[in-house]
């Protein structure tokens, strides 16, 4: 009975922890990364458009190829967000509003391009200013994407600090394992006194197997918790700093160009740099999700412990009756 209880408790704790990691890896992190990518792309698109207009290149190429590439990246990121969004009706409404604002923003930039090429430069700059206001204004497009990103980051944090990924939950299977080991030890001593046999090989083997199983379970659960904590505290934060740097440089450049000042055109959206920063996070979450075969080994070794214990009792009873 105690062996069954140990298997049940250890399985529940393991499945709970893996569920938290899987949710973060397959939904939380991709949603958050997509939101940050969309934010960086739109900020960079705004800077690219202003640079094209201020330099006069807009007469030939409109807002420019970088602007178009940025909008493509933003659209792909928003599509990814919609595919994995779990924000319910409120989340869907917010995403629809964001997509609608992206369409409006693009339309204003196209209107700015059309009027600018027709020689109405002041009106073209006015339309471009309206487009930037739609991005940066209170309750604007970028603020809404930031709201989505905060929600997704909060969801990851909730998984990180859930009961299933806390240190305390590991104590439960350890406690049951220790009680079971004590019961096997007591049975070993009792039978040695009663039947005048020092060793009961099946019971002794059961104790050894149980010790290995408890250690294996503990190490695996602790490894999952530590890897998940490291992924959230270190790798995710490092990735976020990359996005934040790109966003800050793009916003700063767009603001300077809008005000008629020169701007540093380095930095801004760099998907390759963000992908490089994301790889350690992906690897760490994979480590957190690796149970090292415990899913299979736990029921098999628990069954072995129960079988060996039963065998030890049966052998002694047969000797007693014989």
TrEMBL record:
Alphabetically ordered keywords of this record: Membrane, Transmembrane, Transmembrane helix
Chain segments annotated as transmembrane: 163-186, 198-219, 294-315
Entry superkingdom: Bacteria
Protein name: Membrane protein
